[in-house]
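Write out the bound-state structure for FE2/S2 (inorganic) cluster.
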Amino acid sequence: MPYDPGKDVIEVVRHPPRSAAASTYRIFGETLRGMKTTLARVVEGPLTIQYPEEKTPVYPRFRGRHKLHRFETGDPDNPGLEKCVGCSLCAAACPADCIRVVAAENTPEHRVSAGERYAAVYEINLSRCIFCGYCEVACPFDAITMGHDYEMSDYTRSDLIFTKEMLLAEPLERTPLRAAGE
Amino acid sequence: MPRPERKLISLTIDGREVQAVEGTMLVDAARAADVEIPYFCYEPKLGAPVGACRMCLVEIEGIPKLQTSCSTPVRDGMVVNTTVERVKEAQNSIVEFLLVNHPLDCPVCDKGGECPLQDITFGWGKGRTRVIEPKRHFVKPLALSPLIAIDRERCILCYRCVRFSQEIAEDWQLIFTERGAHTFVGTHDGHPYVAPFSGNIIELCPVGALTSRPYRFRARPWDVEGSGGVCTLCPSQCNVEFTVRDDKVTRVLARENPGVDDGWLCDKGRFAYQAIHVDERITTPLVRGADGELRPAGWDEALEAAGALAEHRGRAAALIGGQASNEEAFLLARLLREGLGSGDIDSRLGAAGELDLNLMRALAAPALQASVSDLEFAHIVLVLGTEPIDDSPILDLRIRKGVRRNGVKLAIASARPSALDHNAKLAIRFAPGGEAEFLESLEWALGTPGSGETHELAALLRDGGEEVVILWGESLSAPARATLLRIADRLGLAERQGAGLLEVPLGTNARGIREAGALPGAGPGYGEASPGRSAAQIAAAAAAGEIGALHLFQIDPLRELPDRDGWERALAGAKLVVAHAATLTDGLARHADVIFPAESGAEKDGTVVHPDGRLQRLRSAIRRPGEVRAGWQVLADLAKRVGLDTGVLTAGMAFRQLIAAVPFYEGLTLEAIGGRGLRWPETEAAAAMPAPGPLAAAAGASATPAASGPRAEANGHLLAGTYRSIWAASEVEISPALRFAVAEQVVELSPQDADRLGIEDGAAVRVAQNGTRLRGRAAIRSGVPAGTAFLAAGIAEESANALTEPLVEVSKL
Ligand code: SF4
Ligand code: SF4
Ligand code: SF4
Ligand code: SF4
Ligand code: FES
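---
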């Protein structure tokens, strides 16, 4: 049924009719002009990659999942003392409030860190973390740094709460680092 | 004693005209005017400023050198500059200087985040130092006591802790050793700083030099929340702030209230919070099974079992301990009177006899009530039959403050030597149990000239000044109370402002519980009620099988009440014993049939009444652990089981019922009570306090047991008195940090008797009486009168609660 606007519509304003040549140019010419950029880049090859078989390399200062560090001893059987003293400064700095530290006291029999105290519990809730890196900046002992790993998705939220053991473990470096000048 | 007058003057601070009360220190006046002057050593609670740290320097026009604003009182027309270049330079230099030897180990320091040194360095320091020399080192951390860790490297020598020890607690233990840069805080010979108030120095220290060992590394200020509450461990009812992390109390701080605690706490209040979160705590209802074993049960099962109270209608009795709130006491009294048709309820601890309601009303008369601050400003304070340091520790500090700063004349009249004896003008000893006799002689001496120490005291009370405050202990016998009333009357205490009586009860909330009606023969607001039996009579009746059911609300009579054997028989004689308790004490473990888990003071929601009539609010700071339910709720549910609908569905409803039932609480609301409390004797509703009828003639008749009773005998028997140490509390026993302080049987002997019996200080002794034997350790105190011995009551083992007679035989073990 043809549309009858009725008496409410007084006049419909349309652009002036185009000529045939103008219409043809509009269809092909303009489109080709737009494709120029695309076609000029075709020779460069595709930029998309086959994730997860291939991974985008990250920059050295990329802020991925955190690592907690130990003092290095060079001896794999004798891991060094933890650098973290459980001072909670990272927790104070964290804008997402996703770090939880419960400190305890080192004893001569049970020495975990170099200071008087150590972190008995150290947890980061990575589902809340915004990867701002403030924790790294706040730490007076360079005990926590942001690594390069960005592959952290999981099936349950609770698995995203990383414990001290998980953060201390050597992370699987799954992410290639961008080479200098790359 | 006249309170300081408040006269306003004006001065100029940083170009602004500000008003201040004459005599205030410049730093306070500036703060009131929103000008912040940094300081470390200034702390008005500690008395006169000492000017030790120099952080508070300001420029005062007309004085060439910079002045310490903490020790310069304001003067009219003074012109002060706090931000000029000279002052800034001085502040920078002081910070730099204080940090010369400071280790700056903030990340491992427990003060970090709440440290004035951090804040002031950040706000007024330069941010850099020129000092590259090695710092001074000490061994650290060290234990200054089992409760306090000291890190001497961090100390900035501000004198606060030393001043506290020397001028507030007056235990004279802390001193500065060495001089100059080598100065450090310690005790004379390096012994641990153990004292009833030692924990306060943790809060006083402006750096992390003195930190709490139980709180060590538990949390940072940003991990925790503070929750205002009231300490329920003794009648002082100090205002506290619970530091809560993860729903656990991790620390207790003072919440300064000049009308209650003056900003101090004792170590029991400060550290016994640990009892809230120990395994010993009962967190589920317990029911005794057919096999006689107590085992955990669900609430329904426990309420069902306790509902058997209904079978003992008319033959049930209840006792209530000092830690109950007013609402709980009120509901328990309703449960017993309305639900079980019995008037046998008592809340008085100690050897209280039959209740004399008129006497109780007369002693609680609003006009006669002195307040805690009156202790500090009175002309004369008489401490009668109580030992503040044990019975209400914070009052001990208040009295010392009055004597030291305001020249209060202190007199002590007690059986047991007091820690305040040295501060007193006059210390009079009477025989244990001889207080009635003593008071009568005092009354007589008030009217008759004569000589001797009683007359000296009478003269002091009569002529020493207008404002006389008598601090008396609840253990005073009825005749003694009647005499005390007559003395108060004679001295006109009711008519004078700032004078009066102040009772030190034996239980935390004894006053509130009484006012809520948990007394034999007295209902809410000291009103008339059906007659009932006192605790001692309940014990006798239960032992004789006349009482079928006993309801024990937060009290273990074996522990809290005298005559242990009598109670043992009573508990065994009762068919049903229902208890509410937080820990399984001896008597309950053996005799209770149903135990409901009780809340701790940090979990309760309700009100309590301070001995001076101040209603205070308890608010729950943490979630109740395990299955614990609110006390009012359990009582209301239980009432329902026995067929009484209390109509209480929330804590607030219980409070409103209480207010409606007590005439002199009229118009009180929780909002009005607020965080600081409200003294009802000062409200208009106080006029509704029932007037006492004529006192029974028998009360005050001269024949008291002690007057005619036995004296020390030649055969070596000693007249025994009891005391309840500050540490005698089940909370202390289960707090890991306070293990070292747990009260044991310490038998206090006079040097003469010790000599005669060949007992050395600290030796093991045996106390015997009628076949009851207690073991203890002897302590020889020079103040103990010859022929007497004082024994610890209220303790877990070897407690003097077992004794029933006034004479004991003490021998070396
Ligand atoms: S990166 Fe930022 S948000 Fe994440 S844990 Fe650190 S401070 Fe918190
Ligand atoms: S990671 Fe660093 S900032 Fe965080 S608690 Fe440990 S030491 Fe402190
Ligand atoms: S220990 Fe603390 S309170 Fe005592 S002098 Fe040193 S800094 Fe001051
Ligand atoms: S004096 Fe009493 S109320 Fe105050 S903290 Fe100590 S136990 Fe608690
Ligand atoms: S605060 Fe004035 S000198 Fe310390």
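---
DSSP finds 26 helices and 36 strands in chain B.
Chain B has four domains: 8-98, 286-349+509-684, 358-504, 718-812.
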